[in-house]
Design brief:
- The complex is a heterodimer.
- In chain A, strands 9-10-11-15-14-13-12 form a seven-stranded antiparallel sheet. Chain A has a three-stranded antiparallel sheet with strand order 1-3-2. Chain A has a three-stranded antiparallel sheet with strand order 4-6-5, with helices on both faces.
- In chain A, a hairpin with a 3-residue loop joins strand 9 and strand 10.
- Chain A contains 13 helices and 15 strands.
- By secondary structure, chain A is α+β, with helices and mostly antiparallel strands.
- In chain A, 47% of the residues lie in helices and 21% in strands.
- Classes of the chains: A alpha+beta, B alpha+beta.
- At the A-B interface, helix 2 and helix 3 of A face helix 2 and helix 3 of B.
């Protein structure tokens, strides 16, 4: 028969009533709390019993204390005198149980209870939550700004989407925790003026939902990174999260060791912070080491004016050779670079074929960006942003007569639904086009004027199918 | 507006200070208050711990002896003065009550007024 049980418990930081009621139910089922390690709580088997629980706080305690202080032990002695036995404690949090019928409560003055919780919250919880709330607000502001200014940049990156999603969840959590606490405190003070205690109400279900939502988001993001990102990005993400997964138990182990060695609170805190920094530094070091080591596919290079430059030879869906005849030698003189940014909503592919810098021959160049719309509802939003780029963004601060704008063109030669060409007020049309297809937009730049056949080829190779 | 600290005493504060007319430790107080009041007033262990700390800070009591974790306290002149003030306040309240209702039982008076 199982004699111990471990559960992940999530409680609002001030919800002492909720914790006590939960522990009373657990005792009735035959499980008595025996240890608290963060959110992992352990229980030992007992005969099912009707026990009274009280959760209280000892504000002067710290997670770095090598052992309970004299004052804390004296407090526990007082509690034991009235039948309250310590079940478990974690820093300031103290959980007591009592098997006497109608025991004298540990707190009999509601004002003092509010003051004790205020001191506990002020020392450990309010500052980090407030900082996180501030960071969450700033991040959400930037997220909304970016959504309004550059929706494609935001929505076509699973990393941007994930970080925005996490900040929103974090903001929700901090707002409900802090808002709930101050609301409870205001109402508890009113009740205390009448000599009454006010039970706390936590947001435990919301905490669980937020955690599950964050884990699901993380899993989707990780999958997206592993499927679409570069080898270096994949390795960096795996090293980062692998390190964090190792870091947490390692730091916990260090803290346990410091307690066992009875290292003083202040010295323990310093060692803990230093260990965190050193381990984080090592993690970054490993990422750089991976980048420098031979574990990643080697990048081909060429030398130009004494500098070693990357020679990208990526596969492109449309090349200069597809549009006009190029000699084999000239074909080897190109850099073909492809970069992608994808999310479940949008994908953006930037592709370019440019002559190497060490080639003197004047070779044609080709650049294009494909924005793939995976969710049709975002089509108009994307089109607006792409048109706005040349019609507005590029003209900010540019005097009249020098501005650029998109002018509609016949889309038929491109096999597109709509086509636009960039026109400069001073120099006239540029060979830069925006082509709208059913599920994508193609922005293409030539350094020559394309023929009708070349336009058709662009539509055929870029306007449909896999990118 | 928050009241000035210890300007008036709650019932629990009053009885804790009363216990400390003679030297005693926290656990003695936990037993003495219910005994003194016939169980009408009880002080929780957490409440007592915090109040003893605050009374020491306010110089209303002083620590007299430490035996292991057992600390004994005694009322200071300031504490005695505050206790006396509270007694006078309560006495004045009781006098006012008597002046209005006389020596009749409160319940009977209430019924009479109805």
């Amino acid at each position: 028969m199982k004699t111990t049980k471990r559960r992940f418990e999530f409680f609002t930081f001030y919800d002492h009533t909720g914790i006590a009621r939960h522990l009373e139910r657990m005792a009735q089922k035959g499980w008595l709390l025996q240890g608290i390690h963060g959110n992992l709580w352990s229980y030992r088997a007992i005969s099912p019993a009707k026990l009274a629980f009280t959760v209280t706080y000892y504000p002067d305690a710290s997670a770095f204390d090598p052992e309970p202080s004299e004052g804390e032990l004296c407090f526990r002695d007082f509690c034991a005198h009235t039948g309250w036995q310590l079940a478990a404690s974690a820093a300031q949090l103290q959980v007591f149980y009592n098997d006497r019928p109608d025991p004298i409560p540990i707190e009999t003055d509601p004002d003092l209870e509010i003051e004790t919780i205020r001191r506990y919250a002020g020392k450990t919880v309010l500052l980090p939550y407030s900082l996180l709330l501030f960071i969450g607000l700033v991040s959400t502001f930037f997220l909304i700004s970016r959504l309004l200014g550059d929706p494609i940049g935001l929505l076509a990156s699973s990393t941007n989407l994930f970080s925005g999603y996490i900040w929103c969840l974090e903001l929700l959590l901090c707002a409900t925790e802090l808002g709930g606490y101050f609301r409870w405190r205001r109402r508890a003070k009113k009740a205390a003026a009448r000599g009454e205690f006010l039970d706390t109400k936590g947001h435990n279900l919301l905490q669980r939902i937020i955690l599950i939502a964050a884990l699901v988001g993380f899993a989707l993001w990780l999958l997206s990174v592993l499927l679409t990102e570069t080898v270096f990005m994949k390795a960096s993400v795996l090293v980062t999260f692998g390190s964090i997964a190792l870091l947490a138990p390692l730091l916990w182990g260090i803290l346990r060791l410091l307690k066992r060695w009875k290292v003083s609170k202040d010295f323990s805190r310093i060692i803990y912070i230093m260990a965190t920094l050193v381990l984080a530094y090592c993690m970054v070091g490993v990422i750089f080491w991976i980048a420098d080591s031979g574990y990643l596919p080697e990048q081909e290079t060429y030398t130009y004016q004494g500098s070693e430059l990357a020679l990208y030879l990526d596969e492109l869906p449309l090349t200069v050779e597809d549009l006009q005849p190029i000699s084999a030698d000239a074909s080897d003189a190109y850099i073909r670079r492809r970069s992608a940014s994808q999310s479940p909503l949008l994908a953006r592919f930037d592709m370019a074929q440019r002559p190497r810098l060490d080639v003197e021959e004047d070779l044609p160049r080709l650049e294009y960006t494909i924005t793939l719309v995976k969710v049709p509802a975002l089509y108009d939003l994307c089109q607006d942003q792409l048109l706005k780029y040349w019609n507005e963004t590029e003209n900010i601060g540019v005097p009249e007569g020098w501005r650029t704008f998109y002018e509609p063109r016949d889309a038929a030669p491109w096999g597109a639904l709509e086509a636009y060409q960039v026109v400069a007020e001073d120099t006239g049309p540029k060979e830069r086009y925006l082509l709208c297809y059913a599920d994508r937009f193609v922005e293409v730049y030539f350094d020559w004027t394309p023929t009708a056949d070349q336009m058709a080829k662009v539509g055929q190779l870029l306007g449909q199918g896999q990118v | 507006m928050p009241r000035e600290k210890f300007k008036t005493l709650t019932e629990q504060m009053f009885y804790i200070l009363l216990c400390l007319k003679d030297e005693c430790c926290g656990m003695d107080i936990l037993d003495r208050v219910p005994a003194m009041t016939g169980g009408r007033v009880t002080v929780g262990s957490g409440t007592l711990y915090n109040l003893l700390e605050q009374f020491v800070e306010a110089d209303m009591i002083r620590e007299t002896r430490v035996e292991g974790r057992r600390r004994s306290y005694l009322l200071t002149p300031l504490g005695a003065q505050r206790l006396r003030q509270e007694f006078e306040r309560l006495t004045a309240q009781a006098e006012d009550y008597r002046r209005i209702f006389g020596k009749e039982e409160p319940h009977e008076n209430h019924e009479t007024s109805l």
